Structures are given as C-alpha cells and as structure tokens.
# Entry
Amino acid sequence: MSVMKRLSGIVQAKANKALDKAENPADMLDLSYEKQAENLTKVRRALADVATAKKRLELQAAELQGQAGKLQEQAKQALGQGQEDLARQALSRRAGLADQLTELGTQHSQVEAQQQQLENTATRLSAQIEAFRTKKETLKASYTASQAQASIGEAVSGISESMTDAGMTLQRAQDKISQMQARGAAIDELIDTGALPDALGGGKDDIQAQLDATSQAGQVDSELAALKAQLGTAEPAAGALPTTDGAPAAGPADPTAPAAPAGGGS
# Structure
C-alpha cells in the first residue's frame, strides 16, 4: 500500500511539474479575468430579472389600484341610486383588492431589496474586475519583460561563451604566429652564420668535401711558389741534377734547342 502511495505521489509530482512547465501566466490571468467577467454578466442578468419582476409587480399594483378606484366610484353611484346592497358589494370587492395590493406591496419591497443588493454586488464586482484587469495587464507586462530579460541573459551568456572561444582561438593563433616568427628568426640567424646547410641537413657529401679541400690546397701551393719566385728564393725545379760546385747540372738536351757552335773559345 505504501508503494502505491509513493507511486501515486511520484506521478502527481511529475504531472504538477509538467503542468507548471506548460502553464503560461499570461493565459491564466486572461482566463481568470474572463471567468470574473462571466460572473459579473450573471449578476447583471439576475439584476435585470429582478428589475423585470419588480416592474411586473408595479404594473399589477397599478392595475389593482385602478380596479379599486373603479369600485369606489361604483359604490358611490350605487348609493346615489339608493342601491345600498350594490354599494356594499362594490366596497367589499374593493377591500379584497386592498389585501392584494398590500401583498403586492410586500413582494415589491422584497424584490426592491433584492435589486438593491444585486446592484451593490454588481458595482463591487465591477470595481474588483476593473482592478483585476489593471493588475492583470501589469503582471502580463512584467512577465513579458521577464521573458525578454531571460532571453537577453541567455543571449549574453551565449555571446560570452562565444567570445571566450574566440579569445582562446586568438590566443592559439597568436602562439602559432609567435612560434613561426621564432623559427623564421632562427633560420635567418643560421643563414647569416653560414650554418644553415648543416642545420637543414643539406650541403656536400664527404667525397666532394675532400676533393674541394685538395683543390684548395693545390691552389695555395701554387700561389706560395709564385711568391717565392718573385722573392728569388725559388727551390730547384723537380728533376734538376746538382753539380760538384753546387751549381745545378744541365738536364737532358732539349731536342728542339739549337746546337752549340764547334770550337768555342776558352
């Protein structure tokens, strides 16, 4: 039994929550105003019915008064003609009408009191409804403003989140640019110092490097020999034979050179 009560409570709570979510305060205020207006209409209809009943009683009273006046005249005429019995009969009927008039007067007073009460009720209810209408419109305006404020808050929250994401994106872009600038500066420095080929894994291979070194050494030797020749400190040429007196011996005869004359002088 307790389980059923708990389930019933859960279902009712969920239903109330769903109703609260679906309920629109503006619509509920309009509905309440319409119901109060309907009650005022009912009161005014009842007031109209009471006024009609009062008017009917007044017409009946007027008619009875007319009949009573007529009987009064008939009694006078009967007495004038010496017909006392007829005059008595007319006066007797007139007395019966007087009782009816008294009863109508009592009913008229009651209906008039009801009419006055309904008029007071209608006046009070009309004032309440008018006050409720003013309050209703104020609350509806407040509700609309609250909805707009909530929407603005949600929009601002979304904008704030978007700005945060945009700021993070800008920061990442700035970091990337800084990295690229730093790398570019490092490459420029390597180019200026001549270390860029090694830093980039390029340059010549080891064989070409040895060939270039040998060529450069030969060029240095040639330039050194030329400088020594200019200074008179040139070394003997390769292949020259030294003599006994220290002078270099003549090398093999050049077949293209002219022959020396025979019998030269001593």
User: Anything to note?
Assistant: The longest strand covers residues 241-242. DSSP finds five helices and two strands in the chain. The first helix runs from residue 2 to 22. The beta strands are 241-242, 248-249.
